[in-house]
Structure to design on (177 residues):
């Protein structure tokens, strides 16, 4: 049996921006999944006090046969949003994603960039108190990348605690404290 993580003890406080640096297979994503509740620890406990948001897999739950609009609802529910929250945020998501009339078409007809714009926009609608990220998100064509970068900065600035897994020492030094 391979142990991905062993003997970890830590506590994050408001205002902390933490980077998990390491090579592939070091356990960064596994730790994020434990913190988010996807995996249960085999020993001990993981406790999060506050609204938790996860940008580990932004396409999780996207149904290629469903329309973009239907996927806003599906992904929103997976993120813990109520039906009323999703309904209220749908116009903003549609506008921000720049999908136009494609929003009514099945996601399987989208280009990869369109799919990623939709997934990114839905996933970054929430402003959780604790944000878990597996790498920094950068999506879409050149024009959308600048818009996405600004949105990511806004999401990160609005969260109380950030935990980001990355290979980039530069990102860690720029974003974390």
């Amino acid at each position: 049996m391979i142990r991905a993580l062993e003997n970890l003890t830590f506590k994050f406080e408001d205002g902390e921006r933490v980077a998990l640096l390491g090579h592939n297979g070091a356990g960064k994503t596994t730790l994020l999944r434990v913190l988010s509740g996807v995996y249960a620890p085999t020993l001990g406990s993981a406790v999060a006090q506050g609204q938790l948001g996860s940008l580990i897999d932004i396409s999780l739950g996207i149904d290629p046969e469903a329309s973009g609009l239907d996927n806003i609802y599906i992904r929103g529910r997976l993120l813990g949003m109520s039906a009323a929250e999703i309904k209220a945020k749908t116009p903003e998501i549609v506008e921000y994603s720049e999908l136009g009339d494609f929003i009514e078409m099945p996601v399987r007809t989208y280009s990869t960039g369109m799919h990623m714009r939709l997934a990114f926009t839905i996933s970054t609608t929430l402003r959780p108190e604790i944000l878990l990220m597996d790498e920094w998100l950068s999506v879409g064509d050149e024009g959308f990348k600048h818009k996405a970068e600004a949105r990511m900065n806004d999401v990160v600035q609005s969260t109380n605690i950030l935990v980001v897994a990355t290979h980039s020492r530069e990102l860690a030094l720029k974003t974390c404290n």
Remarks:
- Helices lie at 28-36, 68-78, 83-97, 112-123, 142-158, 169-175.
- The two ends are 35 Å apart (CA to CA).
